[in-house]
Amino acid sequence: MAKKPRKGEDAEVEGEGTEAEGGSGKKKKLILIGAVAGVLLIGGGAGAFFFLSGSDEAADAEAAALAEAEAAVPPTFVAVPQMTVNLAPEPNEERPRFLRFTARLEVSDPMAATEIEPLMPRVEDTFQTYVRELRASDLHGSAGVYRLREELLRRVNIAVHPVKVDAVLFGEVVVQ
Q1: Residues in a beta bridge with 105
Q2: What tens digit of pLDDT does each residue of 140-149 get?
Q3: How would you label 69-84 residue by residue, b for 16+ Cβ within 10 Å and e otherwise?
Q4: What string of DSSP letters covers 66-99?
Q5: Contact 99, 108 (CB under 8 A)
Q6: Which of 70, 66, 96, 62 shows the shortest CA–CA distance to 176?
Q7: Per-residue pLDDT tens for 68-99?
Q8: In DSSP terms, which residues pair with 101 in a beta bridge?
């Protein structure tokens, strides 16, 4: 004898079928969204690669012209007089320490060199006021000299503004 389903059982059987169909529908939507997102990511990455890696002939020609111009005009060097400066004392040290150095300022424009010459007292003052605050340990090794070079370059560019100095080059650096 076939059993007649009761009223509550029909609802469960129908509900189970609906949940199974709804669950697969959600999975299909998630898979579709994931696939669309993947295609967009891959397409965007490929587009960015081709857009950013493509060579622009105008930019290449401009870079070549700039390189030729730099090669044609050698840099000009402005000599800074030799300086001997007292260094700040190390803790628990009574003996005075000195720094003696010679430097040259590198400028790309020969006209800039003529503009720097009248400002040389300002450059010397800028160098001395900074170096007097240094300790001998601040100048230890190539890293110390590099930091000194970078700081002097920053300060000299402020002192001779609007002229631009490209580099500070040391001829001699002696810590005594």
Answers
A1: 78, 168
A2: 888 999 999 9
A3: eeeeeebbebebeeee
A4: HHHHHHHS--EEEEEEEEEEEPPPPTT--S--EE
A5: no
A6: 96
A7: 666 677 899 999 999 999 998 888 888 889 99
A8: 83, 173
